[in-house]
Amino acid sequence: MKKGIPLLALCAFLLALAAGCAAPGVPMPPSLRLPTVVDSLSAVRKGNRVMLTWSPPTETTDRQAIHWPTVTRICRVVNQFPINACGLPVKEIKSTELASVAPGGRKPMVSFEDVLPAALIATQNQATYVIQVLNQSGHSAGLSNQVRVPLAPAVPPPSNFRVSLDAQGPLLEWRVAALQAQLPGVSHVLRIYRREHGKPDFVLISEEPYRTGEGEARDSSFEWEHEYEYKVDTVTMLSAPGKSPVEVEGDDSEIVSLLAHDVFPPAVPGGLQAVYSSVGQKPFIDLTWAPNMESDLAGYIVYRHTVGNDFVAVTKTPVKAPAWRDNDVRPGEKYYYAVSAIDLRGNQSARSATAEETAPLEVR
């Protein structure tokens, strides 16, 4: 019995020792604090500027939150794709200096504008952009996704861009300066954009040929009593056999504004005719005329007068159809008629040419 006690004690001691050795766990290597690689880089060219946007990293490669300053390298390489090194960066920006393009957004976005040197701009050139985010020791986890931008020359916007209003709606006018010799595979178009006053985004409403001299276009989708802002862009189109066209946007024109306030009456109705009838019924005079084609037409107002009197309106509300029957006629009386058109905003045309008809005396 006495010999068994030391054996039990020894087993208990070994178990306690094993438990104590396991408590600290496996030691972890120190964090390198490398920001994760950016995979959201995008680029948009406008004139001689390239706007880069991306979502900056918020964690390291070992999933630690970044609470220290970083440095972002902006890299641009001409006529190489893909690239495996940044080379000489265009710019190095501290994280505190990056401009946010989505303040308060669920996923932050930052931007940088690269102004292209004139020496880089040529029809066949392309730029590849990448970024690197460096930690405090100047190390990174690698290059971002790579984006390509054409470096073809952009065309300047039209001059003397203006907008006026007539009965057909907004009329946009401009002037395009003559270009130098046209290069093979290069063409240009004009794109007209519109937005409602107070709204952030422009929408494309028309694409027009790029022609030297004076040009004009109609806004066919406008609505009366709305206030609009307009701009026009030039777009250079690069075409090559077997490849999709590449577009390069030029700078915007100036923005012009217009309130589409309707003060324009419909056209004067034409073709008015008056015909008397009384066969087997109470006498009446039927009026007919050619219909107006305005999309905002509310109807017609009919006027009548007799000898020695002035025209008075004989319809209390606008007549929808281009016809009306006058049931209030007396035998032996001569009647004169005219018609005007009125739109939904109360603009009324002048009266039509007069039509006349006599209600003959009744034969007893």
Any key phrases for this structure?
364 residues, mainly beta, Immunoglobulin-like, 1 helix, 40% strand, disordered N terminus
What does this molecule look like?
The protein folds into three domains: 42-150, Sandwich (Immunoglobulin-like), CATH 2.60.40; 159-259, Immunoglobulins (Immunoglobulin-like); 273-358, Immunoglobulins (Immunoglobulin-like), CATH 2.60.40.10. It has one helix at residues 4-22, and strands spanning 42-46, 49-54, 71-78, 91-94, 99-100, 110-115, 126-134, 147-150, 159-166, 169-176, 186-196, 203-209, 213-218, 227-238, 246-252, 256-259, 273-277, 284-288, 297-306, 312-313, 323-326, 334-343, 355-358. The longest helix is centred in the first third of the chain and has 19 residues, at 4-22. Strand 9 and strand 10 form a beta hairpin. It has one helix and 23 strands. The protein has 364 residues and is mainly beta.
